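Regression test case RT-17, inverse folding.

Input:
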């Protein structure tokens, strides 16, 4: 309750009966492209099931099905506002419990700068950090021309991205899927 921000919401996966809680929270921010069900595919193939067996209370950020309203929100919404809101709800429901994070793909890319800012904000207020551990899976956090392998993506954006053409072709979207796909394909070469 209270987690709905535009299409985004926070899912709670309570511990199944008979599982002893370990006193830790697992927050799974989710990338903008995939659906959060990827963490809970099927019995025996579920990250959520496995983490429940270890006693974690699980919360998953669900970006929903973004539409026209979300096209103008910007990176600050997905990189800060959602996490501020979700972590506020989690810490209110579970005060003084350790929070760990598993972030997949772009969710990790957006979460790491958020986490640095959160640490600075909490330190400035004299509060201890509430997020204790972070695991990143397939999250590019070093995107440069030289060492990261993302030079082809950056080249496409710098040389081939025409904002007016993209708006004419795709309307109000932040980054057309074709641009992302083209760049990702180039990094695989």
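Golden output:
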């Amino acid at each position: 309750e209270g987690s709905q921000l535009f299409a985004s919401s926070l899912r709670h996966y309570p511990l199944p009966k008979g599982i002893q809680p370990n006193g830790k929270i697992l927050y799974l921010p989710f990338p903008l492209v995939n659906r959060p069900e990827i963490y809970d595919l099927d019995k025996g193939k579920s990250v959520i099931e496995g983490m429940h067996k270890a006693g974690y209370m699980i919360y998953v950020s669900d970006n929903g099905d973004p539409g026209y309203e979300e096209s103008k929100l910007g990176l600050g919404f997905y990189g800060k506002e959602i996490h501020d809101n979700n972590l506020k709800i989690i810490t209110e429901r579970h005060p003084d419990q350790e929070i760990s994070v598993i972030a997949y793909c772009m969710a990790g890319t957006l979460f790491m700068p958020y986490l640095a800012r959160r640490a600075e904000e909490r330190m400035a207020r004299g509060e201890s950090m509430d997020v204790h551990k972070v695991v990143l899976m397939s999250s590019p956090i070093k995107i440069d021309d030289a060492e990261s392998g993302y030079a082809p993506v950056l080249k496409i954006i710098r040389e081939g991205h025409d904002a007016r053409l993209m708006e004419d072709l795709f309307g109000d979207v932040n980054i057309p899927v074709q641009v992302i796909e083209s760049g990702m394909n180039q990094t695989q070469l």
